[in-house]
From TrEMBL:
Residues 1-41, 55-78 are annotated as: Disordered. It comes from Heterocephalus glaber. The lineage of its organism: Eukaryota, Metazoa, Chordata, Craniata, Vertebrata. This is Ankyrin repeat domain-containing protein 33B isoform X3. SUPFAM superfamilies: Ankyrin repeat. Keywords: ANK repeat, Repeat.
């Protein structure tokens, strides 16, 4: 029912419409509109709101894959292992595909620690030349000795930092268990000392963050 009331003292002429339904109490709960919640999630659906952590994560490729898993359709065929192929030769050629094929076939500790006439293993050779893909592949070999020293006492870490290969230095620090930061070469220098002597500031920073001793 609608009632018509006369104009009040502060109102002009005309009528005022009064609804017959009573107003809800002031403390009554307010019904939520589902559309309000949909608006809260709209920003997360935009392409520029996606987290970039997965794109920049400091993880070498392939480490999260399960060995023996089915090869997806369209994936490249496994690299065949030629006769006479060794880990040292593959590392020197930066052939990461051949290295992984050798790992799948199986390597003994003796094969993994083969060294050249200077006493450098495949890992040290890769660190010297800056072969990132080869270092990543060698991280999957359980027989690689990361603290192996060549004829001058240099380890893979010392070799990498004195050459200024910061990316490889970080991979060695993060993905090679048992890495000895304080191993000294034949001249008594640690990796941090060699990095400082050569002015490799990025390598110095990485070593200090890893806890390398200053003296």
């Amino acid at each position: 029912m609608v009632l018509l009331a006369a104009p009040g003292p502060s109102e002009g002429g005309g009528a005022r419409c009064l609804s017959s339904s009573a107003s809800p109490p002031w403390d009554a709960p307010v019904a939520e509109d589902p559309a309000d919640h949909e608006e809260d999630f709209e920003d997360f659906c935009r392409p520029d709101a996606r987290s970039v952590a997965a794109d920049d994560a400091f993880y070498p490729p392939g480490r999260g894959e399960q060995r023996g898993a089915a090869v997806p359709e369209g994936a490249p065929e496994p690299v065949p292992v030629p006769a006479g192929a060794t880990l040292l030769r593959a590392a020197g050629a930066n052939d990461a595909g051949l290295l992984r094929a050798l790992l799948r076939r199986g390597l003994s500790a003796e094969d993994a620690r083969e060294a050249d006439r200077h006493g450098r293993t495949g890992l040290i050779v890769a660190c010297y030349h800056g072969f990132v893909d080869t270092v990543l592949a060698l991280a999957e070999c359980p027989h690689v000795d990361v603290n192996w020293q060549d004829n001058e006492g240099n380890t893979a870490l010392i070799t990498a930092v004195q050459a200024g290969h910061a990316t490889i230095t970080n991979y060695l620090l993060n993905y090679f268990p048992g890495l000895d930061l304080e191993r000294r070469n034949a001249f008594g220098f640690t990796a941090l000392m060699k990095a400082a002597m050569q002015g490799r500031t990025d390598c110095v920073r990485a070593l200090m963050l890893a806890g390398a001793a200053l003296l």
